[in-house]
Amino acid sequence: ICLFPSSIHTFNCRHFSDGSDDYKAELITGVIFDALGAIAGEVPGGSSIGGILNILHRTIFLDNKGSIGTDDVFCYISQYNFKELAQNLESFKDKYNYYKGNCVELKKILDEIEETDLINDLRTDIKDEKAALYTILYPWTVLHLSIYNQLISNTNCAAQRRAKGGRTAMKAKSDEWLVFYSRLLLRYYRPFRHKRFKYPQLSQKYEKMVPAPAIVSQWRKLAWNSSTKKVLQSLSEKCAVKSKSTIQLFTLDDSYPYFSQGKLPYDLGKNNEWLSCWGSGSECKIRTCSHILEYDKSCEYGWHCRGETFFIYSDSTWIKNNQHVHIKYSTNSDKSYWLSRLVKWRKFDTKTCPGKSFSGIREDCDKEIFRTAIWDRNTNDYPQLYDGDFIKFRVVLSDYYFEIYLHGCESLGKDEIKQPY
Fold first, then answer.
1. Once rounded to an integer, what is the mean pLDDT over residues 40-69?
2. How far is the C-alpha of 60 from the C-alpha of 135, rounded, in Å?
3. Per-residue model confidence as pLDDT tens digits over 162-216
4. pLDDT in tens, 289-303
5. Which residues pair with 371 in a beta bridge?
């Protein structure tokens, strides 16, 4: 998406506006995700911005046979009124590549990026817009911070550094932008994945997918100051599931079309349905919950949606793919209740095994043992279980499908993410 044709190019977007090729528009997100996965590990390693963008371009290049190309990506983003943002990203990229090493011009580009309303356009509360902006956010971040890196590191840019407050001030400002973009990336991660999986054909393109919290963790290498590295690590770790984490489980019923083939439901996220075990010791149900993981001490049990709130435990601190877990629902004066599978097909209740407190996975509590299986992304390089992962709790005879929501992760944040000034 970073190598759009020039402004004199004519875009034919009729197939998006008339609905005749809606699938093609949606397919673009899957293709871009493969590109993001391919470049995710390259930014911290110090690769040039041009090299990174070339990788992205090769992934989506139009081959004159009707495959996804830059025209289609441009038209897809234009659906959500981000045409100007995309055009400016391309323009800034071209200027950066042309003036690399020219301190005066690089400062002009930096000022132009930061003194316009373009960056404000990266912020939205609308789900579909978040999905579209995720495709722009990654390369935009790389470009913006690459300009800072050039001005800070180039010995010939002393005058430009003085104009921006000096080297130390520029490093601090670069780090502020890095935190800003990282928070946006986490906020937009789940909507982008939901959009990508709207069509079942896209399910075959997730093997390269890198979870946003892992990207934020990698971005620590882009930070100048140790305090910023700690902030980024905290943002990443708050989205990583560990033993004792508070979670909610969004239900992915395998009765949906394509689900038996390992594909996600068409209307993922449409229904507000969560696993709920209200009434310790009774059979669990599927219920709605409008306050996702919101804690309020004025509530009788602390959580607004107490029946839909659980606590996950494992023998290790960080919970990863293919690992045994117990899931606690509640604790009273003398016992705790844990998620347990019933003999009934894909049904749950809560039982008192493995005891009031967790002291390790108990093999004799076989109905209360579940094995995690992350199935919607790359787990070879990123085995950690993160907020927003699609997981199967594997048992002997059945698989139970959920999307995991983690308390404290930035993806659930509601406060305004303010851009640096």
1. 39
2. 12
3. 999 999 999 999 999 999 999 999 998 888 777 655 544 434 445 566 788 998 9
4. 877 888 777 776 778
5. 324, 394
| Mean pLDDT value of segment 352-356 | 95
User: Partners of 106 in the beta sheet?
Assistant: none
Q: 193 near 206, Cβ under 8 Å? A: no
Q: Backbone dihedral region of 32: left (phi > 0), alpha (psi from -120 to 50 degrees) or beta?
A: alpha
Mean pLDDT across the chain, nearest whole number?
76
Q: Which of 399, 11, 32 is nearest to 196 (CA)?
A: 32
Q: How far apart are the first and last CA of the chain?
A: 27
3-state secondary structure 46-115: CCCHHHHHHHHHHHHCCCCCCCCCHHHHHHHHHCCCCHHHHHHHHHHHHHHHHHCCCHHHHHHHHHHHHC
Cβ–Cβ under 8 Å, residues 331 and 356: yes
DSSP 318-353: B-BTT-EEEEEEEE-SS-EEEEEE-SSTT-EEEE-T
CA distances to 29, 125, 198, 247 from 270, in Å: 19, 17, 11, 20
Q: Which token pair is 267?
A: 């209307």
Instruction: Give the angle subtended at the CA of 87 by the CAs of 152 and 232, to the nearest 5°.
Output: 45
Whose structure tokens read 């197939």?
15
Residue pair 337/280 in contact by the 8 Å Cβ criterion: yes
pLDDT in tens, 14-53: 444 444 444 444 444 444 444 444 444 444 333 444 444 4
Q: What is the pTM of this model?
A: 0.80
Q: What is the pLDDT of residues 217-229, one digit of tens each?
A: 988 888 999 999 9
Identify the DSSP state of 418. P
Residue 9 has pLDDT above 80, yes or no: no
d(CA 125, CA 129): 8
